[in-house]
Task: inverse folding
């Protein structure tokens, strides 16, 4: 009997929008111009006691919904006896890929101003699965898996940020599937093997809502301050024309002052 365990994980499992350090670009030159990085890692572990001569691994993941790009598949990295092929061309735009060291660096969260844009007219379902959108398919042939050995498959993609940025504060779930089946075993009498197995790998796309429920653009604040200063200047000018700032003597006219002096001296 061969007990083969299939595992799958998404890194990260939650992609938060707006992406830090991402800016909309007319021309895409490097992979980071597309959007946040997404890695799906699949692992096969043969717990034995039998070996497995050959098996297949098939991965399906969302690609686009109509004219809307969802994921941009970059590359496939394998460790162990795995050979993969796909009808979908990976990194079809020939973008510059980040070196492995830069990929492991965690993204630094920084303030990112969200500009409200007109939402795209095309409908995008909240659950992005192969049932509702077009998917790419990757088929991998797995060679000899001896007892206690494992094989690792990493699929690197980029989330197409522009598609999701046009849908402000909408939540989505990117749903990928991996299927595994044993093809042959190195024995005359084939022992019992692990039945075909499937795993779902899910990535959430969420939004980081600001603390304030209302975002006031800087130009609105500056305009309000300028209008307030203008109204204050106009009010001061009108009061000046009306003589509001002319000081009046509490003792009256000069004649009244002259009359008060003798009276004050006689009383003394």
Result:
């Amino acid at each position: 009997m061969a007990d083969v365990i299939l595992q799958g994980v998404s890194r990260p499992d939650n992609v938060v929008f707006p992406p830090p350090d991402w800016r909309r670009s007319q021309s895409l030159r490097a992979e980071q111009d597309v959007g946040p990085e997404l890695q799906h890692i699949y692992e096969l572990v043969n717990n034995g006691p039998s070996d497995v001569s050959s098996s297949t691994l098939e991965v399906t993941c969302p690609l686009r919904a109509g004219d809307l790009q969802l994921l941009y598949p970059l590359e496939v990295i394998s460790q162990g006896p795995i050979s993969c092929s796909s009808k979908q061309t990976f990194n079809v735009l020939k973008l510059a890929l980040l070196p492995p060291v830069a990929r492991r660096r965690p993204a630094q969260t920084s303030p990112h101003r969200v500009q409200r844009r007109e939402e795209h007219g095309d409908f995008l379902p909240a659950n992005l699965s192969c049932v509702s959108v077009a998917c790419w398919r990757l088929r991998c042939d797995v060679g000899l898996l001896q007892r206690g050995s494992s094989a690792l498959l990493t699929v690197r993609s980029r989330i197409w940020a522009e598609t999701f940025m046009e849908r402000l504060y909408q939540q989505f779930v990117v749903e990928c599937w991996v299927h595994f089946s044993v093809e042959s075993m190195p024995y005359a009498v084939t022992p019992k093997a692990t039945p075909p197995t499937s795993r779902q790998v899910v990535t959430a796309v969420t939004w980081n809502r600001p603390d304030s429920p209302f975002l006031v653009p800087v130009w609105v604040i500056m305009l309000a301050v300028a209008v307030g200063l203008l109204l204050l200047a106009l009010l001061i000018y009108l009061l000046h024309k009306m003589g509001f700032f002319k000081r009046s003597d509490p003792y009256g006219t000069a004649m009244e002052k002259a009359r008060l002096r003798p009276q004050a001296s006689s009383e003394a």
Remarks:
- The longest helix spans residues 218-241.
